Amino acid sequence: MNCLCYLPDDGPVFDRVGIPEWPPVNPPTFTRHEGYKLIRGYLKRKSNKSDTETKWAIRWMEVEPPDAERADVMLAVYKTDLKEKRLNAVSLRNIASVSLNDDDPHSFVVVVGASVYTLLARDETDARKWVAILNDDVQLARDDKAGPPDADLDQNCLLS
């Protein structure tokens, strides 16, 4: 399978399902599940490695409802929208904050424990939509009295 993980020049990729392009043609979409807005779409994730030049990886991200394996609503990360293999996920209850990035109106920051993740949307409108929906969903997850977050997940690791 062809898959693009890094795109240092931010040029276009391909316009086919399963092969990400940047910027995405479509805005993020969402469905509703028990009060949650399950947002999904392509974002770029900034590498946290300080020993190299700044690299961005295109990732499919989506808020997923609970299932048979876990009781929490999760922010999940995949390489593509085909969702062949989940790279990682974090319980919404473990997200400390989601905010717009002051340095770039197209980007926003997700804080999980001691880790800070910078994500890039296709434009400022999309970034604002991700931040608003994620903040609403995080608050809803915190208000949920279902108990502690799933213990078997790496709670401080969101984005691979």
Automatic annotation (TrEMBL):
Domain of life where this protein originates: Eukaryota
Gene3D superfamilies in UniProt: Pleckstrin-homology domain (PH domain)/Phosphotyrosine-binding domain (PTB) (2.30.29.30)
Residues covered by the PH domain: 36-139
PROSITE patterns for this protein: PH_DOMAIN
Protein name (database record): PH domain-containing protein
Species for this entry: Chrysophaeum taylorii
